[in-house]
Amino acid sequence: MKQIQDKNKKTHRKGLSAGQSSQKKSQEKGIHSAQKLVQLYERETEQKHRKSKHSNESNSRSTLEDILDQELTTVNNNRTAKMGRPGNNKQSHKQEKKHHQKKDADKNEERRIINREGSKTDNRVDYRASNSAEYKAGNRSQISKSTRKQDSSNVSSSKKQMCGYLKNCGGCRLQQGSYEEQLKNKQTEVNQLISKFCKVEPIIGMKDPYHYRNKVHAVFDHDRKGNPISGIYQEGSHRVIAIDSCIIHNKKADEIIVAIRGLLKSFKIKTYDEDTGYGLLRHVLVRSGFQTGEIMVVLVVSSPIFPSKNNFVKALRKLHPEITTIVLNVNDKKTSMVLGEREQTIYGKGYIEDVLCGRVFRISPKSFYQINLVQTDILYNKAIEFAKLSGEETILDAYCGIGTIGIIASDHVKRVIGVELNGDAVRDAKTNARRNQVTNVEFYQQDAGEFMSQLAGQKESIDVVFLDPPRAGSDEKFLNSLCTLNPEKVVYVSCNPVTLERDLNYLTKKGYKAVRAVPVDMFPWTEHVETCCLLKRM
């Protein structure tokens, strides 16, 4: 076999073998051409028999794979000739082909990004309890499809989707129509559930319903090849959907998460494996101050030993100098909970501050703080408007969190009492009161229902109760304590109209009347909606 070797030119070969007449037309193609075909082949793996024009003696067509076979054989023989020993073309080609088939399989597996299945953690299903017995037993039945939930699998393919992750994620379900359409649907839902109790005012939507979440959580995992990935759990499972950005996430938070993922290999940090319990990085939580621009990064790790943490902080802040604090949160338990009990501040002050309704609030990693500050400002002002405060009232802020509603209302009342079960939130609430120089407010760490029962036993007079419970709503014990306390007004801020309907059913049978309600769209592109409702004692 004739070879022409030249240091300043590419190596060519005149022929391959006596029986391969179709290869004679490609004898001037070298290594560069073969590499281009390899890249093309990798991009076209799903089109296994893509047709390509190739001129030969019989004017027949060969597939892209046949051309690749020829070029790979050419390359391997050239390499063998350079090394001064005969090459086994057939064997070499089989090895190359096997290598690329494996590479393609890995890529397809990586695209699926379905790593492991864990326990079901779908918290998006809504329930109602129809009577007192169901309250006690904790049994709930799913609400009918006519008033709740659209399956993302039924989204019309004729509508353009803004997000490429919709099918697997299941979070932003309402992308099949315009924002105006989803507002109408949410209005209809609240009307169907609440209008039998009182008039429902028009829903308050957002002017710019994108990238509103000031709290972004990413779970970290790895693909089959061990490469780190970050994203969210697929709805109803612990399958990780790898994402780089989301239409409702704070943009800067998404960028920081991607930057953290990019640093892991250089610092030899392994992502946590839920099945084996090995690995260090489990989650990343990014919280942003909407008004202040302060950013907190929480690294949730399985061990307090974080290698080269000072250098990691320097590298991360070099990429994102806008980060104001970084906290290590240690979660060494096999649990579906994101945050653990232990924390260590490795940069900054360990918390951020933000401004809401003219007040400054301190936010720690575990503190509850509304995720949409634009709409929260509207919602809380609407709640205070509903209460029609004269300045002489004593109010109770139940489920007070970091004290937002109570502190905002403090200028309009004589006394504020806040109660919250979360100790971290109560500490932040007290700090927030001092920070805002509010002297007519006091906060207690206790179960809200038990606390109200104690107040009633002490014959404490409460004029207005503000309550902002979690999505599951209030339980019968809490509502019974509320009725025993017997305030003149109740302002119920609900993030779930289904449980609001259930609780209104209970309260209206205990001497209260719903007067007015208004939905506020706190969660655009999702099926959730906030509702503020005023009740008065009859």
UniProtKB/TrEMBL annotation:
Active site: 495 (nucleophile), 495
Basic residues bias locations: 91-102
An individual GO BP term: rRNA base methylation
Spans through the membrane: none
Region of interest (Disordered), residue spans: 1-157
GO molecular function: rRNA (uridine-C5-)-methyltransferase activity
Binding site for S-adenosyl-L-methionine: 370, 399, 420, 468
Keywords tagged on the record: Methyltransferase, S-adenosyl-L-methionine, Transferase
Listed Polar residues bias regions: 71-80, 129-145
Tree of life domain: Bacteria
Signal sequence coordinates: none
Pfam families with a match to the protein in the record: tRNA_U5-meth_tr
Enzyme Commission number: 2.1.1.190
InterPro entries, A to Z: MeTrfase_TrmA_AS, MeTrfase_TrmA_CS, SAM-dependent_MTases_sf, U5_MeTrfase_fam
UniProt feature, compositional bias: Basic and acidic residues: 103-127
Cited NCBIfam families: rumA
Family: Belongs to the class I-like SAM-binding methyltransferase superfamily. RNA M5U methyltransferase family.
Official protein name in the record: 23S rRNA (Uracil(1939)-C(5))-methyltransferase RlmD
